[in-house]
Write a structure and sequence with these properties.
The termini are far apart. The protein has one domain. It has 304 residues and is of the alpha+beta class. The protein is elongated, with a radius of gyration of 25 Å.
């Protein structure tokens, strides 16, 4: 009598290995996706917190800590000078009641695409005791300029997990003076600033496109506030409290996932609230900033 041998055939072993390998690949893919989601969420929350902290530092008058990183005494420019400020001889911060910290500026770099660093500068201004009831005029008279004396007088934030800032964009609230761009169009942004108004103490957020609004033309004879000539409460502004989106992506570009930070605003009126800052995780097809802002309707924009 032939004894029957127990065990598995080669075909059964191959099938087992194939199924096990497939399950392991599925588990690895799911785990990698979960890790990437967590990283995007953490980074988006971290960048959201950075922007909220920048706003809060202006609100609580704690921006001056940025000025303690250099042995050079920061000065306020009483005349319109170059930008960023080279701080010509004028009032010395802390030695005059007229030289004051007015806000903070975030520099996302140039070009923004692929950047992983955000530099923060304090914004100094001259408190001239203006009784000008026009907020924009009073701010322009204060001549607020970033205190960019040297490379050490700044805070630097590095995006974690090897992620990069793909783009920073804002919606134009009216046809652009520079470049003839139509209202509702997303345009690139390099600088975001939080600046306290001279008379009311209200804080506004300003977003500037490097190509048209800061570098060209000048402002060799103007301040970063001079272009904010939209004074009435219902007059839209392309710079003040405009809708902004910041897009994060993986450095190797293998994933369609994006970390998305949205700074809400309608570009109308003054005063910005930190509650307007939010973050989420989406992909390259996620549409942000779509909607109606004042009289402007936009189809929104996506993160590349």
């Amino acid at each position: 009598m032939i004894k029957k041998q127990s065990g598995y055939t080669i075909i059964e072993v191959i099938l087992f290995l194939a199924i096990s390998g497939s399950l392991m690949m599925l588990a690895f893919t799911f785990m990698s996706r979960s890790i990437n989601n967590a990283r995007f969420t953490d980074t988006a929350k971290s960048l959201e917190a950075l922007i909220e902290q920048a706003y809060s530092s202006v609100q609580t008058n704690s921006v001056s800590k940025l000025l303690s990183k250099s042995g050079v005494t920061p000065l306020c420019s009483t005349t319109h000078g170059t930008w960023p400020a080279t701080n010509p001889t004028a009032e010395t911060l802390g030695q005059s009641s007229t030289c004051t910290v007015m806000g903070i500026l975030l520099d996302f770099g140039m070009p923004v695409d692929g950047s992983a660093v955000i530099d923060q500068y304090a914004i100094l201004g001259v408190n001239q005791g203006s009784n000008d009831s026009n907020p924009a005029s009073a701010l322009s008279a204060a001549n607020p300029l970033p205190a960019a004396i040297n490379a050490t007088m700044k805070d630097t934030y590095t995006v974690p997990y090897g992620l990069q800032i793909k783009s920073v964009k804002k919606l134009l609230m009216k046809n652009s003076t520079y470049g003839g761009i139509a209202a509702g169009t997303p345009v690139p942004v390099r600088y975001i600033a939080f600046i306290r108004e001279v008379n009311s103490g209200d804080i506004n957020m300003y977003a500037y496109d490097y190509n048209y609004e800061i570098a060209t033309p000048a402002p060799s004879t103007s301040t970063i506030m001079a272009i904010d000539s939209d004074n009435s409460a219902g007059d839209p502004s392309n710079y003040r409290n405009t809708p902004v989106i910041i897009c994060l992506r993986p450095s190797n570009g293998f994933s369609s996932q994006r970390g998305i930070i949205t700074i809400s605003g309608n570009g109308i009126g003054r005063r910005f609230g930190v509650s307007s800052i939010s973050s989420t995780v989406g992909d390259s097809s996620t549409v942000s900033l779509a909607g109606t802002y004042g009289s402007v309707t936009s189809a929104g924009t996506t993160c590349e």
